[in-house]
Automatic annotation (TrEMBL):
Its membrane topology: Multi-pass membrane protein
The name this protein goes by in its record: MFS transporter
Subcellular compartments: Cell membrane
Keyword Ligase tagged: no
Domain Major facilitator superfamily (MFS) profile: 31-420
Originating organism: Streptomyces luomodiensis
Keyword Endoplasmic reticulum: no
Annotated transmembrane regions: 31-54, 60-77, 98-115, 121-141, 162-183, 189-210, 236-253, 273-293, 305-325, 331-353, 365-386, 398-415
SUPFAM superfamilies linked to this entry: MFS general substrate transporter (SSF103473)
Length: 434
């Protein structure tokens, strides 16, 4: 039995005379507010370090390009790839203990990375950092999704609005984190790592104090067999593969983009501002974009539009690369890539997260939420090594960026054809609907 296949609920939420005008935040429960603010703090601590990791590995540690790409992919895989473990633990033990354990692991990982000077130590720290997220992220994301479904059932509006707010607050952290990290890099990379660890120490303290030990309506699952059912769910696995292509494209912010910025500007200083641009766009535009897409597109069409926008972002750099512009003008294609990638992300992420509850078993939302990231994390692990190798093969830059553009474009064909629970059709307006 899948959850909430109830179109009248969605339609009722849309036609409510008050819900379209009420502020989403004002109608959230205290638990949802805590979880959304947690995502803000997570990303502040994380993105104070991650955007500068590739440069640190290549310059301070002296790793080759393929190894840098492999380490970045390993970090993503240890995070995304092990989400299924974190999701299973959440279903079995509840949200609170898994979030607290993840915060402890992230604190230790960042502290270790700050002092790591050899390849094995860097890999160990990166694995611990990724596994920490594999614990707390499925816990937070699955509970936000579950609470968003309940919020929708109560007639407050479409669940995608809650998930869009979750994404927007996460991106606010992504905006603040690189700026904080850029300032700390004037000291050294270790200072940025220790600051990130400090942020997660604050999160640990806050959750130990505020997170309920038992969340009403959350049932802990003891029986086995959930993974076998999941592996037979072809529609869900297709969604995972398409979402993985998005994550692989997003990972190029840390691999392909720094190389392009270094070429155009002679340093990576503008990188912080490009990350800030991406985050600011999401903070300011995520909710309007989600509302616009919800009125016109079903979940599949929303993801299709997002993936094609991401492909267009890579194509912009590919088209401009033969001119070899430098300076401020040379950064414009990179900025265009960031803008289009971010717009695509604003369509893909809430739609994918909103789709999962319709494909999941009622009591195993944590497992399915984790599996979404685990399958996509495996794609990123393989794909990041391949894209890292593109930097070392001496291929024309245009070819490299066109190859990257092809990945999200081809992923459109992987999306499930008939969403089982898309948004209800809006009132007739003459505009295309889902």
């Amino acid at each position: 039995m899948h959850v909430l296949r109830n179109r009248p609920v969605r339609r009722a939420a849309r036609t409510s005379p008050t819900s379209p005008r009420e502020r989403t935040w004002a109608r959230l429960s205290p638990l949802l507010r805590l979880l959304i603010l947690t995502q803000l703090a997570f990303n502040i601590g994380f993105f104070a370090v991650l955007p500068f990791l590739a440069e640190h590995l290549g310059t301070a540690i002296g790793m080759a390009g393929w190894l840098v790409g492999f380490v970045l992919g390993l970090r993503t895989f240890s995070q995304q790839g092990l989400f299924v473990v974190g999701g299973w633990l959440v279903d079995r033990h509840g949200v609170r203990p898994v979030v607290l354990a993840g915060c402890v692991a992230r604190i230790a990982g960042f502290a270790w990375l700050g002092y790591a000077e050899r390849t094995w130590a860097v890999i160990g720290a990166v694995l611990l950092i990724g596994f920490a997220a594999a614990l707390f992220s499925p816990a937070v994301e699955s509970e936000v999704a579950r609470q968003a479904v309940a919020w929708e059932r109560e007639g407050h509006g479409a669940r995608t609005r809650v998930l869009a707010l979750f994404t927007a607050c996460g991106q606010a952290g992504t905006f603040i984190g690189p700026l904080l990290g850029g300032l700390l890099l004037t000291v050294d990379f270790r200072a940025a790592c220790l600051a990130g660890a400090g942020v997660f120490l604050l999160v640990l303290t806050g959750h130990a104090w505020l997170m309920p030990r038992h969340i009403p309506g959350r049932v802990r699952v003891r029986e086995r067999g959930g993974v076998r059912v999941l592996l037979r769910n072809r529609r869900f696995l297709a969604l995972c593969c398409a979402y993985g292509s998005y994550l692989l494209a997003y990972n190029q912010l840390y691999l392909a983009l720094p190389d392009e910025v270094e070429r155009a500007a002679g340093s990576q200083m503008p990188l912080s501002w490009l990350f800030a641009l991406s985050s600011l766009l999401v903070v300011c535009a995520q909710l309007p974009v989600t509302r616009w897409a919800g009125d016109r597109l079903d979940l599949r069409r929303s993801m299709t539009a997002g993936l094609l926008l991401i492909a267009a972002g890579f194509a912009v750099v590919a088209a401009a690369r033969p001119a070899a512009w430098t300076g401020t003008v040379g950064l414009l294609p990179a900025a265009g890539y960031v803008v289009l990638l971010t717009l695509g992300q604003m369509l893909v992420v809430p739609a994918a997260r909103a789709w999962v509850p319709d494909l999941a078993e009622d009591t195993r939302l944590g497992l399915y939420t984790g599996a979404l990231s685990s399958v996509s994390g495996l794609i990123v692990l393989v794909g990041s090594s391949a894209t890292g190798s593109l930097l070392d093969l001496g291929l024309p830059a245009t070819v490299r960026w066109l190859v990257l553009a092809a990945v999200p474009a081809l992923a459109v064909t992987l999306l499930p054809r008939r969403p089982e629970n898309g948004p209800a059709s809006p009132e007739p307006t003459g505009r295309p609907t889902g």
